[in-house]
Amino acid sequence: MFNDIGGLELIALVVLAVLIFGPDKLPKVIQDVSGFIRKIRAFSENAKQDIREELGPEFKDFEFEDLNPKKFIRKQLDQHGDDLGIDEIRNGFNLKKEMAEVSDAVNGHESDSSAAASSSSSGGTKTSLTKGPDLEKKSAQDDRPPFDSDAT
User: Fold this and answer.
1) What mean pLDDT do residues 66-77 have?
2) Of 35, 7, 2, 11, which Cα lies nearest the Cα of 19?
3) Any idea where the domains of the chain sit in the sequence?
4) CA-to-CA distance for 16 and 22, rounded, in angstroms?
5) What is the secondary structure of 99-129 as a DSSP string?
6) 3-class SS letters over 43-82
7) Beta-carbon contacts of residue 55 (< 8 Å; ≥ 6 apart)
8) Does residue 77 contact residue 86 with C-beta atoms inside 8 Å?
9) Residue-wise pLDDT tens digits, 20-32
10) How far apart are CA 6 and CA 88, in angstroms?
């Protein structure tokens, strides 16, 4: 319940309680608060028990903690194991390979997987898409838009 309270914070709460209630009334206040917490817990357990009885025998393994979305999803994934195919989906995404194929397609180069496919489909003869040195220079110059002196 109080797992995230550190030592310094606990000391500050004790000092604050002593200042507010005084050292003579503090034990009585602690007893009252602890009794109140016990009553709340008993009420909560009785309500849970009543709900379980009303749901019937088909919900005998129902836990209220499973209503937490994180725990619910974790429990469902544990029950189904690999039946959902999550491992296949996770392993199916090779982003580096996908990005390399896209960049090769944009640049006009043949990727390794498509090169292997084209060499096997063409009977072992590999066609090269490399350009000569003159064509590379010309295509680099052609990529720039034409200069328009009126637009500037």
Assistant:
1) 79
2) 11
3) 1-56, 63-93, 94-124
4) 9
5) HHHHHHHHHTPPPHHHHHHHHHHTTTPPPP-
6) HHHHHHHHHHHHHCHHHCCCCHHHHCHHHHHHHHHHHHCC
7) 62
8) yes
9) 988 899 899 999 9
10) 43
